[in-house]
Each structure stands twice: as structure tokens, then as C-alpha cells.
Amino acid sequence: MRVERLQLRDFRCYETASLGLGPGLTVIHGPNGAGKTNLLEALYFACTGRSCRTTNEREMVRFGARATRVVLDGRDDDFPHQLSVGFAPGEAKRMTADGAPLQRLLDAPHRPLVCVFLPDRLELVKGAPGLRRAHLDQVVAGLWPARAATRRAYAQALAQRNALISRVRSGACAREAVAAWDLELATHGIALRDDRASATRSVAERFELHAGALGLTGSATIAYRPRTQAASPRELAAELGERLSQDLERGFTGHGPHRDDLVFRNEGHELRAYGSQGQQRLALLSLLLAERDALAAERERPPLVLLDDVMSELDHDRRERLARELRRGGQAIVTTTDLDHVPGARDDDVARVEVARGAVLGDVVAA
Q: How large is the average pLDDT for residues 292-300?
């Protein structure tokens, strides 16, 4: 679905706002603190039903308001569609697709796929492995929606095994009881590991190409680093059994796909430890662009790309390269304090939205 309009009420600093988006590149511009990032968050919230900035969703509700609501209007093959999300703290979200209620927006057939860059998402490159695992699982779900259930099944089996370990440690049951969950955990674990490996293969070559195009000097690669090399669920179950004494000492399961990682390298060196912030930023951008291409190829529709304040930290040459890539296909939304930071932003085919503190001053301008 191509997004055409976003409407929001009592979202962050906005009491009400409505803005149109162009079919290609849209530039949202305004001074610092104007609410540009809030609009990107509202777009992400309308597409996914969750925030891309916080786990405390109360923060999205405007001060003094009781609830927030975002509405996304779009079009798919000339048919109009609408997604909406309403949220009041302490209550379940109210999500609809074309007026029909949903438990999850991920189940909406015409929901736009979405990739997002925020400055604090550099933690995806330089932060803890758990962030990269969670992101990789989102890529798996985007590429193959039905496989998202594997991650949930693995998490449930892991929780059951850890609960049994706690009971054994307290003397409430015998250690032999843990073995009953080893094969269950291993079955889901092998499937999860293989899904992550497939997703990484779909992105890896594209990542290297984008990294070169954006000027990340040297050979840039990403690689999936699984904790286990087991060839089958029974092999992984055997590995879990061999480590049971260690698990009982520490109080949790220490082996399996919940300890995997995604590794970014440049010239053979891990960017997490040895990369500059500029290199890490380019690696993150390359990853998102590679995921966009992989999703477009697998799902036959490019995702909506949201980029917050990405141009200010790039030199002119890299801005030019990124702008060309964003205009190559699909929708992209970029925020900036200065239109001149986005090459081609004043062209007739680029949409522009001006914002001030809590207000959209000018709607879309595009040929």
C-alpha cells in the first residue's frame, strides 16, 4: 500500500495534525524541536501498532490528553485502504484495517512494510546482541510473515525450560524433568536459527553493495553468528542436556539461538568494537537499504523507509549518494532542519512538508 495521508490526534506534541505524503521522496523540514521525529513515530505506529522510540507507550499520548489516535490512508492498485490505531494508557489498543477490528496490525493484508532509521538506532550496530537478534527476527517476519510464529514458540519453550530449572534449584522437582523440554526447545530453536540464517543471506550481498555505494571504504560484510552448529533438533537437544549442570548453577538456559548474534565487519574488523561512529552510521543505513531491497524482492512491494535527521551527519558526497538511492523506488520520508541538506529536495517531484512546534504549516508540494 502506498501511503497518501497521515492524521493524528493528541500524539506527542500534536493536538491534531494532517499531512499528505508523496509517492516517492517526502522531506519533512522544520527547526529543532518542531515535532519532525514525532511524525515519523506516528507513521511507524500507524503501520505496526507499536512505537519505534519507546517501550513506554504512555509517552506517545499528549500531555493533558487521555488517549491518542493515528489514521493512515493509502492506496493499493487504485483501491483505497485505511489503518487506524487508538491507544489509551491502561487499555487495549483499538486497531482497525478498513474498519474491521484487528488484534495485530501485522495481520492486515494491505499494511505497508516499514524500515526506520533513528539516530539512537546506532545501538543496533554497537549495542548488545539482543538488539540485533530482535531486529533480525523482525526481518524474518517481514520476509516470511508465517515464520514469525517460530520465534514466539521458541520463546515459550525457553520460558518453560527456565521455569523448570528454577523449580529444580528450589528442590520442587527432579532434574530429569528438564529433559522433557529439551527436544521441544531444540525443534523450535533449529527452525529459528535456519530462518535467521536465510534472512541474513537475503540481505548480505545487498548490504555489501549499498555499503560500497554509500562510501563505506573497504570490504563491509554482515554475518550471522549462531551459538549452535547442531545439524538437527536431536543434536541441539543433546547439547542442552550436556550443559544442564551449568544451567542449574546459573539458573537459566545458557545455550541456544537466544544467544546468537549478527556481526558487522569492515576490512575484517567488527564495527561494534573498532568502527567509528561514522562507519557505524553508514553500516546501519546500508543494512536498512539492503532490507528494503530484500523485502521488495520477496514481497513484491518496497517498504516505506523512514529516516530521521540522517543527512546532518553525512558529508555532501554521501548525501548525494543516499538521496539518489532513496529516489530509486518506493516511498521514503526524510526529516531535516534544512532543506538544503537533502540533495534535490526542491525538485518538483519531491514532496515537502513544513512543521513548527506541534503544527503542520504546509502540506505536500509535489509535481
A: 93
